């Protein structure tokens, strides 16, 4: 005992006189008085002291204010007026967390309607107060089991409330009241809903607890029940009309050790880890019980996450494919063609002399003149119209387009205007469907016979509508003179030795050409620019797809919010029970947030599975798809964040409920 206690006056027995455990002074409670409802004063100036270890019955007719009084005594509600001192401390000075601590450590509630949590077993119901007190799991299990055994429910540990009789449920709720010690048992019509023998059992139990030193405050409208208590207080219309008076208690022998009120301020409750685990377990149970509804909510999240994953995979895949196709042209290539009027003025267009000059531009490794046009090609009696390209022997190398069969024409073929031809892969299929190896076959362009010396590998690329593999390649000189009758190139491809210097070399080419022509009658472009442009359109496309996917994720989140709001509404009573047994606001907040997050986590995982499966199926159907770990992780993270964000509002609504209001809920 501290020095302060010694200053307190001493009782007759020479012991320090404790302040009464419960001391009410002029307590009033009014309801209504706002939004039109007439104000009703339910408690009208109650003054009352109850000592530790007393067994008190508060008796009165229905509507006399007994339950209201009990809610005030149990710190589930606050009086409109007057002071309530608990162990000498004014309860009005305690904050919500301290009140939660007091409910948890000092009180045990027993209600007429039992108020058990329907989704939890007898054992779990008994353990709820200990959960909020942070008792370790093993100690909790041992104590709940011992309590239930003591109350004759050893074989009903895992039964749910609806599998128990009324008397059994009431015994479970008494065990719950005792879980954290139950110094003061507040029993509101505990026998009201029971048959007479169960009622007698419960009363006997309360008598035993009183003998063991618990303070019992029993509320009843039944005088016969009240008579079993050691002190009877009668109230009528919110006022005490009779009090049989306190009976002196042999404090030392039976009373439980007094509660150390200074602990209220330092209470930490349960540790985060155990709470989270228990909250997750309880959340899982609730979700499982409502599995149809949960399933529908999950569906929203699953669709959201899966579509984010699929859309991103398609976006990335298409981008990659387009890039690869463009890359096949080579990003180190420059293209040049005549432009405007002068392309038709003889002597003004780009000539082979120009190209000779360009060969000396630093950084240029190859200059490839091309002459092109559509021609009809004959093989046997098959005529096929195709794109003919006269080009240089360096083509396979600079366009990274390998020859599949046979060989390519050489500088010598070029010089000698050899009548040799190389087929594009698709042209070979079209022109010689039955010939396994076209090399050595002879074809006709007009009346000029050409010998096939090679077949290109398939490029698989489309430029606009044009199939790049439906092409006939000839030496530039042969094509120009013998097929098209012109010496000037239609367009020119130049390879830049160093990819990083493409723009620089392009400028040098332009300078050389301008010096020669004095007019920009030619156009130069490079593949790098078109690749960049294409990449940008692709990225925009991916962005849009992702946006649509994200919207569906938000819709999923709204589903979570909807179901959480419903859950909070349906479980208002449960929230009240949890608060009455000592849950703090943040415990309730955490519980409902856990449910929301659990839905999103389960939905997120299922969404990943569905998304990856769908994308894999698309892959089978040749849709280009690329999985990225960051897209999958991002979609999952979004789902969880959505659950948190959309679950927060309902969870906060639940945690903000007043304990009495929640208890009175459905
Ligand atoms: P008892 O438990 O003795 O039957 P209660 O304490 O439940 O009585 O109620 C006493 C009176 O207070 C009743 O007339 C009841 O209508 C009124 N009352 C109780 N709770 C509220 C409330 N939340 N709002 C308005 N009136 C209430
Ligand atoms: Mg009542």
**What is the CATH C-level name of the largest domain?**
Alpha Beta
User: With helices defined by DSSP (H or I, 4 residues minimum), what is the helix count?
Assistant: 22
**Uncertain ranges:** 1-14
Strand content: 15-25%
Small molecules bound in the structure, each named once: adenosine-5'-diphosphate, magnesium ion
Judging from the principal axes of the Cα atoms, what is the shape? rod-shaped
Going by CATH, the homologous superfamily of the largest domain would be P-loop containing nucleotide triphosphate hydrolases
Q: Main sheet, how many strands, which sense, barrel?
A: 6 strands, mixed
CATH arch. level architecture of the largest domain: 3-Layer(aba) Sandwich
The tally of beta strands, per DSSP, is 22
Structural class by sheet pairing and helices: alpha+beta
Strand order of the largest sheet: 6-7-8-3-9-10
Number of domains: 3
Radius of gyration: 45 Å
Mean pLDDT, rounded to whole units? 85
Annotated CATH topology of the largest domain: Rossmann fold
Description of the molecule:
This protein has 22 helices and 22 strands. It is an alpha+beta fold and 666 residues long. The chain folds into 3 domains: 22-269, Rossmann fold (3-Layer(aba) Sandwich); 282-324 and 533-663, no CATH class; 333-526, no CATH class. Helix 10 packs across helix 11 (291-329). It starts with a helix and ends with a helix. Bound molecules: adenosine-5'-diphosphate and magnesium ion. Adenosine-5'-diphosphate is lined by residues 31-32, 40, 42, 60, 62-68.
